[in-house]
Design a protein that fits this description.
Blueprint lengths: L22 H16 L5 E6 L4 E6 L8 E5 L10 E5 L4 E5 L2 H9 L7
Antiparallel strand pairs: 1-2, 2-3, 3-4, 4-5
Helix pairs in contact: 1-2
């Protein structure tokens, strides 16, 4: 008779899945973030991996509400696109299937007349 150690995860049901950004997606977002930090526009960020969506929040100051939220919502993959940029007031600035094209709405803020 051999004894087996108890399994660390109970077999009651599957673990809830979590939506997260892939490494390539984070690379695109952090490249834009780095340019905006160098321009003095953004100062801090936060990443939230929730059950139904992943959110990259951008802050001008740490104690404020986010000025932009970059969201990945896989449920909208077949419809309007799973990537969206949302402003501080909750208005969707851009939505689409390709992250780079969605982020162009924020790159326009970087271009200023001299």
């Amino acid at each position: 008779m051999t004894m087996q150690p108890p399994s660390p995860v109970p077999a009651a049901g599957p673990m809830p899945e979590q939506v997260a950004f892939h490494r390539t997606e984070l690379s695109v977002i952090l490249t834009l973030y780095g340019r905006m930090v160098a321009a003095g526009e953004w100062r801090d960020y936060g990443i939230s991996c929730l059950k139904d969506r992943a959110v990259f929040s951008v802050f001008r100051r740490t104690a404020e509400n986010p000025i932009y939220r970059i969201e990945k919502d896989p449920k909208l993959r077949g419809r309007q696109g799973m990537y969206s940029v949302i402003g501080m007031d909750g208005q969707i600035l851009r939505r689409g299937h390709d992250l780079r094209t969605v982020l162009r709405v924020l790159e326009r803020k970087l271009i200023r007349p001299v």
